[in-house]
Amino acid sequence: MFKGKALKVSFWLALLIFIFLIPLWVKDPYILHTLIGIGIFSIVALGVRLIMLSGQWSFGQAGFLLVGAYSSALLVTRLGLSFWAAIILAGLITAVFAIAIGYITMRVKAVYFAIITLAIGEAISLSIRAMSGITGGSYGLYNLPAPNPIHLPGLLVEFTSKTPYYYLMLILVIVSALAMYRVERIRGGNLFDAILQKDILAESLGINTLKYRVLAFSVACGFTGMAGAFAAHYYLMTRPDFYGLLHSIYAVTYVIIGGVGSIFGPIIGVILLLSAVEFLRAAAMYQAVAYAVVFLVVILIFPGGLVSLGQQLWARATALLRRATVKRYPEIRSRE
Amino acid sequence: MELGLLSQAMVNGLTLAMIYSLAAVGLTLIYGIMRIIQFAHGHIYMLGAFAVFFLFQQAGLNYGLALIISVLLLAALGLLIERVFFRPLRGQDLPSMACAVGLLLLLEGSAAAAFGTSDRYVGAIFPGVSGVAGVIVPNQRLLIIGVSLLMILLLYFFLHRTRIGRAMRATALDAVGSVLQGVNTNRINSMGFAIGSGLAALAGGLIIPIAVLNPAIGVEVTIKAFIVIILGGLGSITGALVGALIIGLVESFGYTFLGTGTALISYIIVILVLIFRPTGLFGHV
Question: Nearest C-alpha of chain A: how many angstroms from B130?
Fold first, then answer.
């Protein structure tokens, strides 16, 4: 009766419906704005996690956000493309860019890769500043258009309030999560498991680890680029200092705090930490300190991330539920 | 005139390089022994600078004494940090890294709340210039270069010639093997962290007479120190020194002759070095 899978699916379905219905009663633009910000960084963090699964740490994701943001901004303002074509092209451009970088840099591992991506992220931001003729230099690009309205039979979606942006962001997060989950589950998830645990052994079994590392990196960066493009047309501007080194570092910590073990980990990490920032505004000048304390307490109590706690609670809850059911319908016991 | 500009860029580059190398050898020691990416290392440097500022400027202590007290204070803080935050997470790379980011936020937030975010200046403590081999060097910079070189030589001697230093290098090579040989790795970790933090604090205290001080100066030092040790090869003191010389001189000459865009050059150098020599200039394995 309470087979784990059905329960799990219905739980996630209920959660998804809840998330979809949020704008029906939440009209406060401030809350929607915060949720949209959470969406943008959820995509970035999902990407960081996918890269981590391939055994690499990227500290340059802010650079890829910028690549996406500027690609889309320039495609729309210079070439007159519609936002919808531009955001997809921005994702592709960022992904191709990541493939090129990936093939050159993937020979270095873990902490070296962390520093090389950090340098690349900074180099991207500095290059954007330097190419002021195209990119507007340090001032950035202003007055970007909002996404073009969508004409559906009987429905006109115009991007004049936060709500349509909220739904667009939600769809982007879901698509990114599904795509990255698909990559993660190549060969039932064993492939990235093998690369992560012992890449030399994986290579000796004929797995082209370089190829899959680059694949993970480019998929992650591609969606990060789309998130950047979304942000450019949400804030209606983009600047080179919009996403910097600290954002790259935070993206990694969202994943660790949420937990690398599950695809929900990064999202949980982003939700917790970004809403902590908002709640702690009341602490005024002690906001940064209070945030740091929350951060450190979480990491010291749950080094495996918050999902490890969630998984334990889930196991306990389903066990209780099962016991209660068996008590009521003893005939189930024989079937188990 | 052109020669004057060149020698000036040289002196500035050497000063910068020595500050970077002090921060970098501390970082490489901590990474080497514990495999921790200490993102808050530059914040120890920042706190060291603040300690000297308050001891020297406010309390009116002798500069040398202020430096020594600041180094000891920050070494003690390093000891405490290792004990409270990093020891419970030992051997867990990712949580340790996140913990270091948390520390970065904590130290910067606390400094901003306690000292405010405005810029502070100390000004040259040893004004005047000296002639060294026909080149005019401000005394303040001479002091920075001299003290830093001395400390790095002392550290090198300590790591290679003393029992504890050798135990540290052994732990860096193989922690399990060292435990089996009777090395108290807990103590080695604490000492490594304390020494690394002390050196960072020294760098901060040395630079404030020629630089601006505010709670935000830490991040850049951490990044530069990481670039230096990656360039030189993780865990190598010589590498850190050479890496610091390269980055320091490139930055100084770049800012003198190219202006902005120099920052890009440092990053491109580190990207190229890692592509063609993934273990850094002096790294092995």
Answer: 37
Least confident of A216-220, A293-297, B4-8: B4-8
Contact A116 B271 (CB under 8 A): yes
Contact A289 B110 (CB under 8 A): yes
If DSSP codes are grouped into helix, strand and coil, which group holds residue B279? coil
Task: Give the pLDDT confidence of B91-116 residue by residue, as tens digits.
Answer: 888 889 889 999 999 999 999 999 98
**How many of the other CB atoms lie within 10 Å of CB of B281?**
16
CB distance from B223 to chain A under 8 Å? yes
Closest residue in A to B91 (Cα–Cα): A303
Confirm if B73 and B79 have CB atoms less than 8 A apart.
no
Q: Is B94 within 8 Å of A256 when comparing Cβ atoms?
A: yes
Query: What is the DSSP secondary-structure string of B211-260?
Result: S-B-GGGHHHHHHHHHHHHHHH-TT-HHHHHHHHHHHHHHHHHHHHHT-T
Q: Nearest-CA neighbor of B44 among B14, B66, B23, B13?
A: B23
ipTM of the complex, rounded to two decimals: 0.85
Tokens 């196991």: give the residue.
A315
User: Which residues, in sequence order, are CB contacts of B213 under 8 Å at separation 6+?
Assistant: B46, B49, B50, B53, B119, B120, B121, B122
pLDDT in tens, A242-262: 898 889 989 999 999 999 888
**B130: three-class secondary structure by DSSP:** strand
B54: contact with A, CB 8 A cutoff: no
Q: Could you say which residues of chain B have pLDDT below 70? A: 1-2, 284-285
Q: How far is A158 from chain B (nearest CA, A)?
A: 40
C-alpha–C-alpha distance, residues A309 and A259, integer Å: 10
Distance CA(B63)–CA(B190), nearest Å, equals 28
Residue B98: which of A129, A130, A253 has the nearest Cβ?
A253
Q: Provide the 10 A C-beta neighbour count for residue A176.
A: 25
**Packed helices B41-52 and B63-81: angle between N→C axes, nearest 10 degrees:** 150
With an 8 Å Cβ cutoff, is B240 touching chain A?
A: no
Helices and strands in chain A: count of H runs, count of E runs: 15, 2
Residue range A55-89, pLDDT digits in tens: 899 999 999 999 999 999 999 999 999 999 999 99
Residues paired with residue A150 on neighbouring β-strands, in sequence order: A157
Which residue blocks in A205-305 are alpha helix, DSSP H? 209-235, 245-258, 264-279, 287-301
Bridge partners (DSSP) listed for residue A155: A152
Residue A157 DSSP SS3: strand
> What are the CA-CA distances from residue B95 to residues A4, B126, B134 (Å)?
30, 44, 52
**pTM of the predicted protein model:** 0.88
Among the partner residues B105, B230, B264, nearest to A126 by beta-carbon distance: B264
Q: Is B275 on the interface with A (CB under 8 A)?
A: yes
Among B92, B226, B268, select the one facing A123 at the smallest CB separation.
B268
Nearest to A280 by CA among A271, A269, A290, A292: A290
**Type of residue numbered A199:** D
Contact A307, A297 (CB under 8 A): no
- pLDDT digits over B52-74, tens only? 999 998 888 899 999 999 999 99
